[in-house]
Design brief:
- The radius of gyration is 23 Å and the shape is elongated.
- It has a domain of 70 residues.
- By secondary structure, it is mainly α.
- It contains three helices and no strands.
Length: 104
């Protein structure tokens, strides 16, 4: 009885979630690459801004904290940037691979 319910549940899930095709992979890859390019430009501008506007406080502790926060912001912006780049590469590889996989 559980096998029948499991099969029926799988059929319902398949109707709600159609299979992804090569077009979906290509559009996802293209979107990810466009986000990569835009965030790369933004990350460069953030890095240049913080390089030109150094923290200038009289307290050494405040200056160290400010410098650490600036480094954290720059690092996270580039992490976001290259995450989108690697996702785009991965989706493009899946797009190319989808032409070589046998359809069953």
């Amino acid at each position: 009885m559980e096998d029948i319910n499991k099969t029926v549940g799988d059929n319902i899930d398949n109707k709600n979630n159609p299979k992804k095709g090569p077009i979906n992979f290509f559009i996802g890859s293209l979107t990810s690459f466009l986000l990569f390019i835009s965030f790369y430009i933004i990350s460069n501008k953030i890095a240049i801004y913080f390089a030109l506007h150094k923290p200038s406080n009289s307290s050494e502790i405040v200056q160290n904290i400010s410098s650490s926060i600036n480094t954290l912001i720059i690092g996270l912006s580039f992490l976001l940037t290259f995450s989108f780049g690697f996702i785009g590469i991965g989706l493009f590889i899946v797009f190319v691979r989808s032409f070589y996989v046998n359809k069953t």
